[in-house]
Amino acid sequence: MTTTAPSRPSLTERLSGISGEVVKFGIVGLIGVVVNFGVSNAVLHLTGWAPVRCSVIGTAVAIAANYLGYRYWVYRDSDAASRRREITLFLIFSGIGMLIENGTVWFSTYTLGLHGTLAYNVSKAVGTGLGTLFRFFSYRTWVFKAIPEVAKPEVAKPEEAALPRPQLGTEGQAGRATHAGQPAAGGHVPAPAPAPAERVAAR
Predict the structure, then answer these.
(1) Nearest Cα to Cα of residue 26 among 142, 129, 100
(2) Residue 51 near residue 120 (C-beta atoms within 8 A)
(3) Secondary element (H or E) of residue 39
(4) Residues 28-42: pLDDT tens digits?
(5) How many angstroms separate the CA atoms of 128 and 59, rounded?
(6) Using the 8-state DSSP alphabet, how is residue 178 labeled?
(7) Which of 30, 93, 147, 157 is the most exposed place for a label (fewest CB within 10 A)?
(8) How far from each other are the two terminal CA atoms of the chain, in whole angstroms?
(9) Over 70: is that where the pLDDT of 26 sits?
(10) HEC string for 39-89
(11) Which residues does 162 contact at the CB level (< 8 Å), separation at least 6?
């Protein structure tokens, strides 16, 4: 008889998997940061547009680069059966992360009145860190869902074969039948011993 019981990973295995996932996510995220800052600073200095607009452009290009890294490396084992749903959720959560990231740039520029390349990059770095934390937990929770683990069949120990009940031999049966006053297996009943008076008369 075989039973199927889902194998649950231990706490150590789950922590090890999360740590490896964090490292990969960090590598992809670092590449995205380089792309983000490179594109946004290039647009800022080449066009002279508003800092928030340049930051949004850099973030959008980085999101596209990050999706490729997440989809085909970090979460390549995730369930890709519903790709449209995945892309939709990715864009939604990436948009929220973009608002977090560029909100700090807007706050620094128009509320605090900080201008210049240094102020721009510091505010963008703070926003990028906050947006990255949000993206990590949202991507791994809702966007790139893991493939459901298939329960591994566990073969139960074979049941012990029912042993035949021990049967008494003919001698045991004969002795038990004689003791009960019934005929033995052969049908021969031993004659009872003569009484003492009969033995005297016989002499």
Answers:
(1) 129
(2) yes
(3) helix 11-47
(4) 989 999 999 999 999
(5) 9
(6) H
(7) 157
(8) 76
(9) yes
(10) HHHHHHHHHCCCHHHHHHHHHHHHHHHHHHHHHHHHCCCECCCCHHHHHHH
(11) none
